[in-house]
Specification:
It is a single chain. This protein has a nine-stranded mixed β-sheet with strand order 3-4-5-2-1-6-7-9-8, with helices on one face. It starts with 10 loop residues before the first helix and ends with a helix. Strand 1, helix 2 and strand 2 (46-52) form a beta-alpha-beta unit. The protein is an alpha/beta fold. Helix 1 packs across helix 7 (214-244), helix 7 (214-244) packs across helix 8 and helix 7 (214-244) packs across helix 9. The protein is built from eleven helices and nine strands.
């Protein structure tokens, strides 16, 4: 019998199996940020849920997106501003809609990415493109006891407020940022890399060269983001399957999100140390065979993982 997992597992196949839409944030809504946003409208598994730019609001965005360079990407979508802080995008063909929150903070530490449910952000401002500066977007790590104390004092979970869990820099980044080139070495991007950069096109040696090739570069950024999401999402899904004692539970959104938040937070300095068994899972999803080697069929995927973990 034919099994789709008998062939090479591509990133898109992994994301299709996860059947989850990841909520993404964009920091900086200039020409690059808008190009990535427009490309994402036709990109499965990704939904831009929040934009931060102190100089552009939702109403101004509607006017900016009428530019000819975005016309092809936005065809079939109705984009309107509900207010200066909220944009709504309607897909006329599928009769669906999504709402994007607009934030106007200057300092990354003041952005509450978690409020709209954002865990991954794309840094497009060109300002926070070093490892240290980009890390200012990240959630502040806390131990379990600190989490309980925070909840007791404030009545909410830490997860309900705070920064993102991972940052992808979509502009020239400093030498201290792991940088990957989709189509060349994107599979070298590991789960532990919580700040990464997307390489510029070969013909573009500086950011000013991107003005005529924004559409192609935005697709490169989203390709790299897909690799990040495939590793992160699969790891969270495996944690769900191990906890429940059955095969991977694709489509179970609530436990999936809880486990995604947990495993991503374990990367952040100051957080509760993760279990050694989690490190075994991370080793699996980081391996090159996870993405581009033949894998098991869907019915025995969880069993294979159980054997792998128990053998270590």
């Amino acid at each position: 019998m034919f099994c789709p997992f008998d062939e090479f597992r591509e990133v898109d196949d992994i994301l299709n199996d996860l059947d989850h839409t990841f909520r993404i944030g964009i920091n900086g809504f200039g020409s690059l940020g808008r190009a990535i946003f427009c490309s994402s409208l036709n990109w499965p598994h990704i939904c831009v849920a929040a934009v931060n730019d102190p100089f552009v609001d939702a109403k101004q965005t509607v006017e900016l997106l009428r530019d000819d360079i975005y016309r092809d990407s936005t065809a079939g979508f109705d984009i309107d501003a509900v207010s200066s802080e909220e944009l709504i995008v309607r897909n006329a063909n599928e009769n669906t809609s999504m709402t994007i929150s607009f934030i106007s903070e200057i300092e990354p530490e003041n952005i509450s990415w978690k409020s709209p449910g954002v865990l991954h952000i794309i840094e497009c401002s060109g300002v926070f493109n070093t490892f240290t500066e980009a890390s200012r977007h990240l959630h502040i790590g806390r131990t379990h006891n600190q989490e309980l104390e925070f909840r007791r004092k404030h009545g909410i979970r830490i997860w309900d407020e705070g920064g993102a869990m991972k940052v992808l820099i979509a502009s020239p980044s400093s030498s201290g940022v792991p940088t990957f080139d989709p189509g060349v070495n994107e599979r070298d991007c590991k789960f532990q890399d919580h700040v990464v950069g997307c390489a510029l096109p070969k013909h573009s040696e500086k950011e000013s060269d991107l003005h005529w090739d924004l559409e192609n570069y935005s697709r490169q950024v989203l390709k790299l983001l897909n690799v990040v999401l495939a590793r992160d999402g699969s790891l969270a899904n495996y944690l769900v399957s191990l906890e429940s004692g059955r095969g991977p539970s694709y489509g179970e959104k609530v436990p999936f999100l809880e486990h995604l938040e947990y495993i991503l937070a374990s990367n952040i300095e100051g957080s509760e140390p993760r279990d050694t068994s989690d490190d075994d899972l991370i080793e699996i999803v980081n391996g090159p065979s996870f993405i581009d080697d033949p894998g098991p069929c869907g019915c025995c995927q969880g069993q294979r993982l159980w054997r792998r973990v128990s053998d270590n």
